[in-house]
Amino acid sequence: MEESKKGLVLVTGVTGFLGSQIAYQLLEKGYKVRGTVRSKANEKKLKPIRTLPHQGALELVEADLLKAETWEPAVAGCEYVLHVASPFLTKTPKNESDLIKPAVEGTMSVLRACAKHPVKHVVVTSSVAAVMSCKDSAKKEYTEADWPVIETIPAYNKSKTLAEKEAWKLYNSLDPKTRFKLTTINPGYIFGPSIINTDFASGDMIRQLLTGDILAIPKLHMPIVDVRDAARAHIIAIETDAADGQRYLCCNGDALWLTDISKILKEEFGKYGYKVASRELWHFMFKIASLWDDQATTVLPMWNKFAIFSNDKITKELGMTFINSKEAVLKMAYSLIENGVVPDKINKVKK
Asked: Using an 8 Å Cβ cutoff, are 9 and 238 in contact?
């Protein structure tokens, strides 16, 4: 690896949507990066990472969330650890432990490895899913003080909530004089330009809207953050001693209904022949669908839940400013077209 005046940073899940953007920004800032992948033989996933700048400062190692023994070698020699990797299946698993187990056990394996090495600062990627409770429909504004009621939330929300709670539990059990610093970043729905061209949940949502795979739109309200801002928040956190022991909601304050996102896409891409859905799905139809559709069952608790997620703390303490939601949505859509995830009708029309 190239010599760098800045420290070595471990980025778990470096081939993911957020992980790849974090690696890109770290390399541009002069850090050395060690990224974890499940298999170095999966060239399809690795190909976009090979295009990142400063390849001489990038190292890839194999590690698995369900193989605890793989994490000590990955952590060894790193000053900072950004634990971004977490399972996020686009289809709801029949057994929720398929999501929860790797999220919780993987987080604990990474943090236990960090506790055995002189790691300075760890940032864990959590989620607004570890803040919002589907049961509390009267709640209008959430802050970092909020946690969900476990019994009311879907499997993915449980995985992020339990993983973050276990992280804080381990941190608080360590000697304050010698333990690593710990921060959690809790992003909203992450949109924005994508470096990767493989599956990821927020990208699949935009893909389905652009391709017409979604015929009618469920009534979902979405706190949003651009992937570039989410990545920047992780990096600012490791550079800020005062972020130790803190969790930060990471949203731009410009939440949208899914119907709003559809309108943005239709206005921009409709002229090129993209058939973007615009009709809202009726609640009773969605309830009927949930009887046999696992995905509908997962979304149902979030139906028509309006909430504001305060970004006061992250703007004041980390100095964050945010890209607006419209730009984040459009940048993601264009990158999906450029990466071949969505058929390119733009150039056909222009020709």
From this structure: yes
